[in-house]
Amino acid sequence: LFITIISCFLALVILWLVMPLYNQLLGYELAVNWNSWQPYALLLGIIVCVGGLSGCYPAFYLSGFSPVASIKGKLNLGKGGVLFRQSLVVVQFTISVLLMIGTIIIMYQMRYVRQKDLGYNKEQSMLVRLDNADIYQNRTLFKQALENEPGIASVSLMSGEPGGFFDGYYFDVEGQHEKWNARTEYTDFQYVKTLGLKIVAGRDFSVQYPTDSADAVLINQTAAAKLGWTDQEAIGKWIRNTSNDSLKRRIVGVIQDFSFLSLKENMMPLVITPGSDHRLAIIRLKGGDIHRTVSAIKKDYALAAPAYPFEYSFLDQQFDDMYSKDIKQQTILSIFSGLAILIACLGLFGLATYTTTQRIKEIGVRKVLGSSVRALVVLISKDLLKPVIIATLLALPIGYLVMNKWLHNFAYHTPLHWWFFALAVLVTFGIALVTVSIKALKAATQSPVTSLQSE
Fold it and tell me: Distance between CA atoms of 287 and 312, rounded to whole angstroms?
């Protein structure tokens, strides 16, 4: 109980120190209400339960010994206590290996997401939302002013940015008897150029075709495939938005699929239509003096919407925000994985201390008979590492099932390579081996005279 009280006190000190960092990691505030009785009741319960249970086990175990046998040194400890201690180590290392597997796989999935070719250019692309009446009404003038800035490559007004919200509508389609559902994007003629999309069949919207704003659309490759067309066959076919458009619009181009939704979602059909439902502007910046260009954009925004503050973000920042929850999950899991391994190693070190103490005379006899330090370290380590091996065998299938399910939250994910599990096992086993070897080496190098001397 006394040790548990000290531990609780130290835990509260550590909690006070790390809470600001943990809140920063989470992105929101966690706080403990010390004015209520619940935290104190929880602490008291922990002290009583942990201290009581920890103390009761050896108390009941020792009270069952025969005093005469104890004094004569003929105490038979049996195998029950050994099995219990080893079981605790197995549980600790099973959790450690599981957390290590999870950390490695989440880390590589986030790396995979960052490195995947999304099909559009998110670098140096500024996002400005048209979220007030002034900027919305003056959006065309705002765009024209931006296009005259030397540091800007192109500007496009649109209804949804990649990774953002895209409306879904039903369409009548040439040759199709049933209505067809697709995501939609309302934009201007600079959409393909600004995002760096690739036309795989047909052409882009163009001012050379004055009727494009009234009767043209672009679709992605998935949309063409869902409708049963090849990319080239889709050109010239008509579709009509049954909710927002009375006109039949001709498909003038098919764009290569790009990740306009999160990578957690499968690729979906997309229809890109010239329209006035503009909710944001994406501004593609040239290289050079970015700060000067941003200042120029701010000035143009102030002319278009003088009563509102200029707010912006970048498309790559938007991309990172989309997966911020998973990145935080990776960081938190890494922290708790390290803590779990530390606690498991403490348990293993305790088991190693107990085992070497019980076998101290055996070790002394072996040394007298000629056993080398290396042979003794191997002998002791072999027995102590058995719980770690059992824990690893338990953790591997559980880790595979859990992480395979987690990866299926992503439509696009890294495969479950065998070396993910091998690395987790290697790291955990290596740490356990070092922990055991420290104690085993100390016991093996001890003088046989000390080991064999009479009590």
Answer: 18
